[in-house]
Design goal:
With about 270 residues, the chain is mainly α. Helices cover about 70% and strands about 5% of the residues. A hairpin with a 6-residue loop joins strand 1 and strand 2.
Length: about 270
Amino acid sequence: MSDEKMSFFSHLEELRKRIIICLAAIGIGFVLTFNYSETILRLLKRPLTTDLVFSRTYPFLRSIPRPGPPVDLIFLAPAEAFWMHMKIAFFAGLMLVLPVILYQIWKFIAPGLLPREKRYALPFVVLSTVFFFCGLLFCFYFVLPFALNFLLTYKTENLKPMISIGNYMDFTTKFLLGFGVVFELPLVIGIAAKMGLVTPQWLSRNRKYAILVNFTIAAILTPTPDVFNQTLMALPMCLLYEVGILAARILVKKPAMTPQEATEGV
């Protein structure tokens, strides 16, 4: 009984250690990015001032200035602009030290893994980071321009947009973080399949339920209740689910056929 208690408290101590390291890393990232918060804000305003258009010639996608008067951000409270710069620095610092945080997560779960599973630490950290930033870039260059263009032009001929910096930052950060997390889906499915929790056949059979879950998650993660923006997140999730099934098929090796099964197959 004492061994179980010691094991439990050692897990708590390990968790405390990993949390402290993560918080220290985020603090360092915050300090490094705070002086660049104005530059980051100008970058985050780009989906508000540009449209993404398709063309039949190269380049097939290009950004053009949004027609009409420019939309300027305003602040409605004396401290709103200051706190938005703090929030920008916090999220930018979080993105900067994301590999450190993912590595700490892996170090916490590593003691419960088999020796052959621990060798996946580096691929886990690298792929998690790559997938997360792919989600951020996809959202920033494709989803946000479409979403903002729809919201700012749908039946607004007699209205003038006056968007506060606080509302805009909440809108964009929720979208960006949501897509960053969603793009981890193929990796999560691949790991689950590798650990034997799911099989490619089970994933394929339950595709219709996955589509329903994807639209439900999209409705929760998107910062607006409209169906248009929910669909912008749900459709990539459905595609990522298919990528996850493909990854599961690659990672899960088929069991070797017994002599009797081989004979029956012949």
